[in-house]
Amino acid sequence: MRAMPKEGDLAQEAEVVWLESTEGLDYVRQALDKVNTRKGRPRYERDGRLVGYANLVPTAPRRPDSGLFVRRTFYLLPHDRPNQPDDPECPYKVGSPLEAVDPRTIEPGKAGAKAPRSQATAEMVPAVS
Hints:
The structure is a single chain. The protein is built from one helix and five strands; from the N terminus they run βββββα. By secondary structure, it is mainly beta. It is elongated, with a radius of gyration of 15 Å. The N and C termini lie far apart (about 40 Å).
């Protein structure tokens, strides 16, 4: 649906569920997806892997335009830096995708944020010999 949540998009979130540890991840991508359920693992139809998702409160309304619920998902694509930390050809060796946020900044009802670790600068990247 949309990569970056706007104010109010996350008001119905009850919890964030991580499917794996995010401790070693510089960033995760976040997206707002339209799904049939308020909670539980949503269907994932992107390349890469689903890392986490948000569950909604039991009273969260359906979208009037689609009849679906809007929930956040957190994922990584195969070419993302957390999947290829030592690959000098990784397209995000420096910086990160637009929708990438530091997973340590994610909370229910609060959009994640970019942080120094999610933005890796040239000074942070080890030289390849």
